[in-house]
Amino acid sequence: MGLYDCRCMITGVSLKGADAVLVPLQRRCGVYSPIALAIKGNYNRLGSIDGTEEDANSRLVLEFFQAELQTGSFEVEEEYLSACGYYPISTIETLLQAFERNINDNPRAAVLSGLPIIFALISRTRLSDFDRSR
Fold it and tell me: Does residue 46 contact residue 3 with C-beta atoms inside 8 Å?
């Protein structure tokens, strides 16, 4: 693992130092579809977000995956994620980092119903913010 910059999946702008949203996705029948509402935070240069906004959505997403972990519908590679510092999954940020591992290192680190969870990162910077920087 190292620091690197990602780009917004819509605009292509760098997310370095940016507020961003993370949209959890799964691929079914060749199509990537959202599996939860976007989670707000700041791009952390590790491929995910941190500084997440504690709101009803982020709490529900965390509670859902924790419950599915208990039922076995959501499976994680505990030893692998523990070595990365992302297990046990006790915060929304550790959950999102587990999803990041699916994209960049281990496609089976965190799977729901047998399918890996990935995500799109989207900048929250408004056009008016670009105008002010000129």
Answer: yes
